[in-house]
């Protein structure tokens, strides 16, 4: 497919799917968050894990809040992404706990206030749950279009990357680009798509 066609297709898909997930009611979102936690536990991705990074839901994304609370109750440390203070277009990961001081970043997304002691070097993360806009049955992922996750995890093959989504975000075949970071799995409230090699 021609380059411009892929870009146009991706832009149209982003718009369509963001509208779909944005139309979910608060009740549907709350149910999805609970089912997602069950699906994640059953998938086995948390087995033996002592720490992971997730995100706070924004723009209709499926919420990992039940997952984060589960981690806190089970002595698993949790981290959240923040816009990297020096490396433009990259993410840094900060410890997130009950008393984390939060602030809004330039996209109006809440993130822990930058504090050197709370930073986890990215290469030390075991498992990262990523938000996404669209996915397909091969666990291909398309995000919001900033390239933040792609840049941050390019060439970091030893970190498990697991995409989280609502079922309505699945498409038949996602047009992918060379820089899209490959995931190990995608988990929705009703299914787990595992990739065998990574
Ligand atoms: N490893 C990289 N190095 C430099 N630029 C990159 C890299 N990965 C992605 N980009 C750039 O980021 C832009 C957005 O990429 P893309 O459309 O795949 O974002 P996305 O996957 O939706 O976003 P995100 O990774 O934040 O979820 C592209 O223009 C791409 O060139
Ligand atoms: Mg991408």
Provide a brief overview of the structure.
The protein has 198 residues and is an alpha/beta fold.
Write the layout of secondary structure elements.
Elements: H1 3-22, H2 26-43, E1 51-53, H3 65-73, E2 77-83, E3 91-96, E4 102-104, E5 110-112, E6 119-120, E7 127-130, E8 134-135, E9 141-142, H4 148-153, E10 160-164, E11 185-187, E12 192-194
Bound molecules: adenosine-5'-triphosphate and magnesium ion.
Adenosine-5'-triphosphate binds next to helix 4.
Task: Tell me what the structure shows.
The longest helix has 20 residues, at 3-22. Strand 4 and strand 5 form a beta hairpin. The protein has 4 helices and 12 strands, in the order ααβαββββββββαβββ. Helix 2 packs across helix 3 (65-73). Helices cover 27% and strands 22% of the residues. The model has no long low-confidence stretch (mean pLDDT 96). The chain has helices spanning 3-22, 26-43, 65-73, 148-153; strands at residues 51-53, 77-83, 91-96, 102-104, 110-112, 119-120, 127-130, 134-135, 141-142, 160-164, 185-187, 192-194. The chain has a single domain, classed as NagB/RpiA/CoA transferase-like (Rossmann fold, 3-Layer(aba) Sandwich). The chain is of the alpha/beta class and 198 residues long. Residues 142-143, 147, 150, 180 line the site of magnesium ion (MG). Residues 142-151, 154, 177, 179-180 line the site of adenosine-5'-triphosphate.
């Amino acid at each position: 497919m021609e380059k411009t066609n892929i870009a146009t297709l991706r832009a149209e898909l982003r718009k369509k799917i963001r509208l779909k997930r944005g139309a979910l009611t608060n009740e549907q979102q709350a149910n999805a968050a609970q089912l997602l936690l069950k699906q994640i536990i059953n998938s086995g991705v948390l087995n033996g894990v002592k720490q992971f990074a997730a995100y706070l839901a924004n723009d209709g994304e499926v919420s990992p809040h039940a997952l984060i609370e589960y981690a806190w109750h089970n002595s698993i440390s949790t981290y959240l992404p923040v816009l990297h203070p020096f490396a433009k277009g990259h993410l840094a990961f900060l410890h997130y706990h009950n008393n984390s001081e939060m602030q809004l970043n330039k996209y109006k997304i809440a993130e822990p206030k930058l504090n050197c002691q709370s930073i986890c070097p990215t290469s030390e993360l075991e498992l990262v749950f990523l938000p996404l806009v669209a996915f397909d049955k091969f666990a291909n992922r398309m995000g919001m279009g900033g390239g933040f996750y792609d840049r941050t995890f390019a060439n970091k093959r030893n970190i498990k990357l697991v995409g989280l989504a609502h079922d309505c975000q699945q498409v038949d075949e996602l047009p992918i680009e060379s820089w899209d970071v490959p995931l190990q799995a995608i988990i929705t409230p009703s299914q787990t798509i595992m990739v065998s090699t990574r």
